[in-house]
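Example 9 (inverse folding). The structure is encoded as follows.
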């Protein structure tokens, strides 16, 4: 059976390619989702791509992943730095979780240096641009394959 990866993006990431392009680049979220889907096929993974500006919606999708997802790749956006609710939801998920940040949050404002989500993440990819999503997909594939052997 094909494993499903939940690719979750948080607030304002729907504006990728239009918002602060000097920080986040010109690639759109649709481009990222298409690229992860193609890579997923190569890695024998199916990808469920979801984006919301609402914290509760992200929590609901993380809970859904408990039943239907093998792994989560998440860029929680600004909620990384504020959301105990997202952390708690991720703690209730048993599969691998990889946190992605397009920008190098550690080279930015100090309020971006801490992430609640990092307390649960099995891996964190920071400052690799949108390539971070591909790296996260490959990491998830490796963890899932190792777990099956
Ligand atoms: C971000 C970094 C966050 O601090 C910011 O709020 C975002 C995007 C990133 O991908 O670099 O919205 O998660």
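The amino acid assigned to each position is listed next.
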């Amino acid at each position: 059976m094909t494993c499903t990866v939940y690719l979750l993006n948080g607030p304002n990431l729907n504006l990728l390619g239009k918002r602060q392009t000097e920080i986040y680049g010109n690639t759109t979220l649709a481009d990222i989702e298409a690229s992860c889907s193609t890579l997923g096929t190569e890695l024998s993974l199916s990808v469920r791509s979801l984006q919301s500006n609402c914290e509760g919606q992200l929590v609901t999708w993380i809970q859904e992943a408990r039943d239907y997802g093998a792994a989560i790749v998440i860029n929680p956006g600004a909620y990384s730095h504020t959301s105990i609710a997202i952390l708690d939801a991720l703690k209730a998920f048993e599969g691998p979780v990889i946190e992605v940040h397009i920008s190098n949050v550690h080279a930015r404002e100090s309020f971006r240096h801490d992430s609640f989500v990092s307390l649960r993440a099995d891996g964190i990819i920071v400052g690799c641009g949108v390539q971070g999503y591909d790296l996260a997909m490959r990491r998830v594939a490796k963890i899932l394959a190792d777990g099956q052997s």
